[in-house]
Amino acid sequence: MTVPSTPLARERVGVMLPRDLPAAQVLPFARRAEELGFDELWVVEDLGFRGGVAQAGAVLAATERIVVGIGIMPAGARNAAFAAMELATLAQLFPGRLISGIGHGMPVWMRQSGAWTASPLTFIGEYATAVSALLRGEPGPMNGRYVTIQGVVIGETPDIVPPVVLGVRGPKSLEVAGRTADGVLLAEPCPPAYIAAALGHMGTTPGTAGVEVIAYDVAVVDDDSDAALERARAGLTWIGEPDWAPHLAAMPFADQLARHRQKCTGPEEFAATMPAEWVAELTLAGTPDQVRERVAARYRAGATSVVLTPVEADGPAALTQLARVLSHR
């Protein structure tokens, strides 16, 4: 496992920049997140929306302190050497303010773009190993099955090497992350039991030095906890899909949730009709005090950063409400 030159502080709170936020609001949102005191801002690279590296560069240039995470760059979309060059450039220009998230990418998107490999596990392991080596100033490793950049060298490397985390799920992918990267980015939902299980698959334990565990979670903050839970449901529609099974396996209601999913006619009904206690376990929704305690529970399970994901239509207004979680830190 690689270790960045200057490890980031633990127990950080970040916020996600909504992928569909109007372009004119992107930089004001980033500046406001920094002003409100968030430690991190995470940009999204989803097919059909905006590029992660371009967003990260713009946001870093528009702010002064906040750490920017790319969550995530699909490995199949970029040659490993050129991806490392992009990341090294950002890390040189903005020392200590970048986290590099790399993942498989959503299979349907990657197949649409002709970038899905026959062996995603082999590919992501080779890719993470190669990018990390280049960022440290080392020559590209021996050619593998997919990544063939042996001997490539980046002439100028950053003084502070940005952490490379893998945005993956599932036991086999998490094991690869434990072997080849500085940590993992866990997409929502990230209840403590899932974080603990993921660390087990990675072969590490909570608090291990140099290991990043970034936990995304749908978040809504309101003085009325019931209202917050109701508004958070919109962010849970997709967890009924089979790909999200690893997130739910350790939950006591996993079997019930699976049966509930089978009875529903679609994702909207699934999210709208699940019991409120499930919503509370699978989100960071509630009063500021309730959300702070759920964030703390994720830290205790091993998260180093908890990223609040707004789900409401008015992103800037949601940002201000989410920042109420920070007031008693």
Write up what this structure looks like:
By secondary structure, the chain is of the alpha/beta class. The chain has one domain: Alpha-Beta Barrel (TIM Barrel), CATH 3.20.20.30. The protein has 14 helices and nine strands. It has helices at 23-36, 52-62, 80-93, 107-112, 120-135, 171-180, 192-202, 225-232, 245-248, 254-263, 267-273, 276-282, 288-301, 315-322, and strands at residues 12-16, 40-43, 67-74, 98-103, 164-167, 183-186, 212-221, 284-286, 305-310. It has an eight-stranded parallel β-barrel, surrounded by nine helices. α3 (80-93) packs across α5 (120-135) and α7 runs parallel beside α13. The protein is globular, with a radius of gyration of 19 Å. The mean pLDDT is 94.
Label this structure with key terms:
single chain, 329 residues, alpha/beta, eight-stranded parallel β-barrel, 14 helices, 9 strands
Number of helices: 14
Q: In CATH terms, what is the architecture?
A: Alpha-Beta Barrel
Structural class: alpha/beta
Largest sheet: 8 strands, parallel, barrel
**CATH class value:** Alpha Beta
At the fold tier of CATH, the topology name is TIM Barrel
Measured on Cα atoms, how large is the radius of gyration? 19 Å
Measured by DSSP, the beta-strand proportion falls in 15-25%
Order of helices and strands: EHEHEHEHHEHEHEHHHHHEHEH
Number of strands: 9
- The tally of domains stands at 1
Mean pLDDT, to the nearest integer, reads 94
Helix content: 40-55%
Task: Label the overall shape.
Answer: globular
Query: CATH superfamily name?
Result: Luciferase-like domain
Q: Which parts are unreliable, with pLDDT below 50 for 5 consecutive residues or more?
A: none
Q: Give the strand order, joined by hyphens, for the main sheet.
A: 1-2-3-4-5-6-7-9
Rounded to the nearest angstrom, the distance between the terminal CA atoms is 31 Å
